């Protein structure tokens, strides 16, 4: 679950992603990946429990970074602002140097309905984690849930903009912009 | 895809849901369902393409009712208000007399991760449909997407409250309340 994959782990991830893009996710075997990375299949399975984990293993660390940041936010901060700051923090922490990876990863996911379902499940789990983290700070339950839903929706939209080839801005800036637009949309 | 299943279709749906609750979704076969409903398996497959469709066949009609309502909304209506009215309309149209069904259905889905993924996919598809419908009315793309995300998030939270045994209010009222709470959460 390390943030900075090194050595065989990094090679495996790069090899896997290149193959997923070239051949498609379902058509790529663990044997293909290990062979391209110049390691054994056993090394693959030591690093990743299964093929899908190459794409999803960062999700838990991301979630943890967000909820840890939330747990240190000022107790009187409003829930959406707390969620916003935590998401921007995690964006800077996790994604600053991951744009090429994120673009390739997204193209693989877009081509595969099962991977899309898995990604949706990951996002739903992030909503639950943010909601629980806010609720533990005495934010009422519905407000916690709604702020979590709004924060994650903004994150998703910002992420889509971030990986757009025409974009040159940081993910954190785009998250802030999306939440500001959401505030405009919500204003009567 | 009829809203008011009658005859064998209705019997099949009730039999299936009762069996899913009793035995679990995976442990229930189409043969069990047909036998409980007093029809042949062939009749089941004529009504539902597969077992999962018993739970998800209303999704397309719901989506269509929402987007059709959106297409008739006043052109100067703000996107979140348009989404809100369409969701409230569909809630009244589709769910007024479906509370016992909705409760059982949710308990089946909550017990099965694959069904949860399917439900998430259905909700993501609803977000896309609302976004497209708003964007076709010249709402800017990001505002369309954000209003769609917020509307569906409110729908989900309202739905959870609606099926709560302690609730006595209508789904439409709960959607309106959730969107008002969302506006409060969004206000700085």
UniProtKB/TrEMBL annotation, chains A, B:
Positions of the DNA-binding region: 29-48
Domain HTH tetR-type: 6-66
A Pfam family hit: TetR_C_14
Coiled-coil ranges (or none): none
Keyword field: DNA-binding, Transcription, Transcription regulation
Keyword Disulfide bond (UniProt): no
SUPFAM superfamilies associated with the record: Homeodomain-like
Top-level taxon of the source organism: Bacteria
Hydrolase keyword on record: no
Protein name: TetR family transcriptional regulator
Species the sequence originates in: Gordonia hankookensis
């Amino acid at each position: 679950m390390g943030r900075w994959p090194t050595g065989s782990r990094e090679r495996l991830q790069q090899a896997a992603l290149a193959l997923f893009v070239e051949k498609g996710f379902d058509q790529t075997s663990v044997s293909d990946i290990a062979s391209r990375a110049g390691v054994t299949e056993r090394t693959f399975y030591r690093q990743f429990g299964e093929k899908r984990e190459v794409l999803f293993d960062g999700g838990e660390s991301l979630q943890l970074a967000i909820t840890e940041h939330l747990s240190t936010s000022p107790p009187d901060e409003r829930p959406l602002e707390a969620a916003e700051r935590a998401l921007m923090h995690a964006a800077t922490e996790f994604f600053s140097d991951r744009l090429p990876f994120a673009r390739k990863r997204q193209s693989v996911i877009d081509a595969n309905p099962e991977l899309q379902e898995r990604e949706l499940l990951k996002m739903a789990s992030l909503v639950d984690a943010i909601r629980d983290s806010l609720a533990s700070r005495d934010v009422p339950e519905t407000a916690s849930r709604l702020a979590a839903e709004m924060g994650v929706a903004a994150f998703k939209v910002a992420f889509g903009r971030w990986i757009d080839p025409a974009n040159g801005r940081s993910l954190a800036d785009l998250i802030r912009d999306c939440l500001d637009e959401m505030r405009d949309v919500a204003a009567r």
